[in-house]
Amino acid sequence: MKRIINFLIIIFLLFNFKSYSQYDQEKINNLTHSFSFGWSNPISLIKSITDPNQDEKIGFLIDYQLNNHEEKFYRVHMKFSPFYSQPTFTLNNFLISFHKGKQLSQKNNFNFGHGLGPYFKCNIFRAQQTSGTQAFWSSDYFGFGAEYFIFFDYKLNENLYFNFLLNINFGLHQYYDATIINGANSQEYWGIKMANQQLISVSIKKQL
After folding, report:
1. Phi and psi (nearest 5°) for 58?
2. Residue 83 gets which letter from DSSP?
3. Dist. CA 87–CA 176, nearest whole Å
4. Where are the beta strands (DSSP E) in the chain?
5. 29 touches 2 (CB < 8 A)
6. What is the pLDDT of residue 8?
């Protein structure tokens, strides 16, 4: 009898192990992916055309999104404005964020949703190598905090979407007093502020 009971327990465990495996496989099969590439700072760049005091370069965004069957998703989002001014290559307003989001509605060809997550930002520089000196990387204007976003997707065809993003950032940021003392910048400060140089973004999203 004891052997029979042990045998039944083993069969039960194997059966449940198989069931969990099938469930996990179904969850994996329901995952979808998307990749976006686009323009991260249309408002700032257009403003710089009429404002000679604003030094703004074109910005790009790269976005990867993992969706599940419950209309929830996880997203890795990166933005930056690259430019080269001899002898320095700069990634201005570099920002990377990680979000958990949810699709709120889907009607006809439109999708709408939102999400929230942490972000980190800075400016990144790389000075060109010259005779007797070594090329080096440096960074400044650091910041981190929470980013909330809203997105609108318009379906162009089977797997292609036009994507509109509105981002609102709030966190702790590094900045400097503009006052010049003895030819050098004054004290460095950290303060709570918003960082919305890339408030609105547009991109093309490809469903993979």
Report:
1. -65, 140
2. E
3. 24
4. 32-39, 60-67, 72-85, 88-107, 110-127, 136-155, 160-176, 180-181, 184-185, 188-194, 200-207
5. no
6. 47
Could you list the mean pLDDT of each consecutive 10-residue stretch along the chain, which spans 208 residues?
A: 51 52 54 90 73 72 85 90 81 90 88 93 79 71 92 91 92 77 66 77 91
pTM of the model: 0.76
Nearest partner of 77 among 89, 95, 91, 50, judged by Cα: 95
Burial label for 147, CB within 10 Å (0-12, 13-18, 19+), is buried
Q: Could you give phi then psi for residue 108, rounded to 5 degrees?
A: 55, -115
- Domains of the chain, by residue range, sit at 1-30, 31-207
DSSP-assigned letter for residue 17: H
End-to-end Cα spacing for the chain: 55
CA 69 from centre of chain:
22
Q: What is the structure's pLDDT at 76?
A: 92
Would you state the CATH architecture of domain 31-207?
A: Beta Barrel (2.40)
Of 85, 84, 81, 86, whose CA–CA distance to 48 is shortest? 81
Task: Supply the pLDDT for residue 5.
Answer: 44
Query: CB neighbours (10 Å) of residue 58?
Result: 14
Among candidate residues 206, 104, 114, the one with its CA nearest the CA of residue 162:
206
